[in-house]
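From the pipeline queue, job 12 of 40. The input is one protein chain; the requested action is below.

Action: predict structure.
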Amino acid sequence: MRASSLLLISAILSLSFYGCSVTSIDSIREKQGNSTKVETMLEELGSQPRGPIRFQKIVSADWSVDRGGLINLDHPKAEEAGLESGLEPIQIYFYVIDHPENGRFLIDTGMGTIFQKPSEEWPVSGMVQSVMNMDLLKIHTSTSQWLEANGGSPKGVFLTHMHLDHILGSGDIDANTPFYIGPAEATDSMLLNMFVQGSTDNILGSDRILKELDFPAADDSQTESLRILDFFGDGSLYVLHVPGHTAGSMAFLIRSTSGLQLVVGDTCHTTWGWKNNVTPGSFTANQERNAESLNSLIDISKKLSGITVHLG
């Protein structure tokens, strides 16, 4: 009995130390797009800021979450501003990319129709609902409602990352539609994932196709840390690997009919954080890498005139 107890304790401690991945659904590597460098991207976008993509930002829901997750309250600038813990109002978005030749893609998923039903029917555990203050969600439109009213389903979905609030609309998107994710996004192990993996799997659905984008490895000649893909190969959509908030976090630079659009995901959640170059707080896995990614995105935005920045 004593030996069995020790083995059980050892197994629990092992799991607690190593954690687990955010989902048990397998992902496949996907080679798509052309590798490019920051300087090349900036030169191309600066010379031709408008492009072929019709870009739309859809507000799916209002919500309130802990300010200490959205902003690093231990940062000197946050302390100087007197920011304290409390609920911060935010919104949940998804973005629509309509390319004239390649069709419709989404960035993130919005809110699923299931979340307009009683919470007992949601594919999220009661514990996760409570911790995430999901009772405070006020839904404007579900993803399926918007798609049905605006011309149909996407050919693919880009996930800025796989935190639950960015995949809540997955159930409204056909299982055959691939979800594109960043490097190690689905496989990076964290202790927190032990509590959310089941809910993540339920929301995504067991048949979900996860495609991990194959970003080029940095070489000795590169001075910048960002790894970038020209996804369609025509300079209209650049996908940037911006690790820190999660291992595979991604941002997107879009040459749209209405000008340049920068979708930063949760590399930065708030206008205050962006203006003061302060990373998110407890919601972020790696503060140092998040700060590097945020610095890079702010630097890019300053070098491109007329750009519109969309925060997480």
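Job complete. Residues 149 and 267 are 31 Å apart (CA to CA).
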